[in-house]
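Exercise 7b. Backbone tokens:
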């Protein structure tokens, strides 16, 4: 049996955190369903307001409205079970505003990566209901963050998420590391990060759970470590066409691409990616999503590509995925998937 997950004074009966997937893939419906089953459902705030009426004119306003709306809705769907959290990328142009909106809306947890969340404790009062966690891929990153948080804020993480090389979307590894992934001894790196967390547990006299993400597909994977599979559920917020892109993908269809975020990313090779190999996609409008994006130099608009995909336009859409997407061959429900993962 898997042990329950305790984060501060909150308890999830199942120690499973559903990864936050943007744009629009993990919103309130998926996160609420996962929390209802006793896990931690996570909403991605990346361009979360793309369906709001204000989005085309004022993306920042639309996103803040949607953050509060989806957290509220997910909590209603959860019926008091599990936890509802948000994933907020450090690379976002309005990172601070997203964090403050999530806290105001009562998010149980904030998970933050795609950069080092050095100022996260400053934005989330330790006395607030919301707990905070960095996403790291190496001991170096974990130690850097925890050391800074301890020095500057006399505080440490409430939990840590380790994102391994098999994860979907943006990755904290170089192209060279990803190309030689089969020979990477990542279990050793995981143990080093856990050791780093334990050092700060002793310093602050508190338990710091460490959650492993990336490549978790079966109950055996869960047991070994303690993704992508949540996309192929009826409750996933993405379109049916998006889900079928996962169901139809083979291992050979997975490709590492260079994202405008400035990091390599893992995605399903489709018409959109093949087109980019021939020429850049003209950018006619900036959606103000990333702090360090220059529309004049990047090969495509990531907001436009991700929204197209989540709405079902596979010809013009970017479909992020994990390394195990080729193993997904059937649609399921969150209830069935959670039962399978815990070995019920």
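Sequence design result:
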């Amino acid at each position: 049996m898997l042990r329950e997950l305790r984060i501060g004074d909150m308890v999830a009966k199942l120690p499973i955190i559903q990864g936050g997937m943007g744009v629009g893939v993990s919103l309130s419906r998926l996160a609420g369903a996962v929390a209802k089953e006793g896990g931690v459902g996570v909403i991605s705030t990346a361009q979360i307001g793309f369906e709001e009426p204000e989005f085309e004119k004022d993306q920042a306003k639309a996103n803040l409205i949607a953050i509060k709306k989806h957290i509220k809705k997910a909590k209603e769907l959860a019926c008091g079970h599990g936890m509802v959290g948000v994933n907020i990328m450090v690379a976002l142009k309005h990172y601070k505003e997203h964090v403050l909106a999530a806290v105001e809306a009562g998010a149980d947890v904030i998970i933050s990566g795609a950069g080092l969340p050095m100022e996260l404790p400053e934005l989330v009062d330790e006395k607030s209901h919301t707990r905070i966690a960095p996403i790291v891929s190496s001991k170096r990153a974990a130690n850097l963050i925890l050391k800074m948080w301890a020095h500057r804020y006399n505080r440490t993480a409430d939990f840590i998420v380790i994102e391994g090389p098999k994860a979907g979307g943006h990755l904290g590894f170089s192209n060279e590391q990803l190309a030689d992934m089969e020979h990477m001894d990542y279990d050793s790196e995981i143990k080093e990060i856990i050791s780093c967390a334990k050092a700060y547990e002793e310093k602050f006299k508190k338990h710091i759970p460490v959650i492993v993400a990336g490549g978790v597909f079966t109950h055996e994977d869960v047991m070994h470590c303690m993704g992508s599979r949540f996309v192929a559920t009826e409750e996933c917020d993405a379109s049916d066409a998006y889900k079928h892109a996962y169901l139809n993908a083979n291992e050979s269809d997975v490709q590492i691409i260079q994202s405008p975020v400035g990091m390599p990313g893992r995605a399903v090779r489709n018409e959109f990616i093949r087109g980019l190999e021939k020429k850049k996609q003209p950018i006619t409008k900036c959606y103000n999503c990333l702090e360090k994006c220059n529309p004049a130099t990047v090969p495509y608009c990531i907001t436009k590509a991700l929204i197209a995909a989540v709405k079902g336009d596979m010809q013009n859409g970017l479909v992020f995925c994990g390394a195990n997407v080729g193993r997904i061959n059937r649609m399921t429900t969150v209830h069935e998937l959670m039962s399978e993962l815990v070995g019920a």
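Instructor comment: The mean pLDDT is 89. The longest strand covers residues 131-136.
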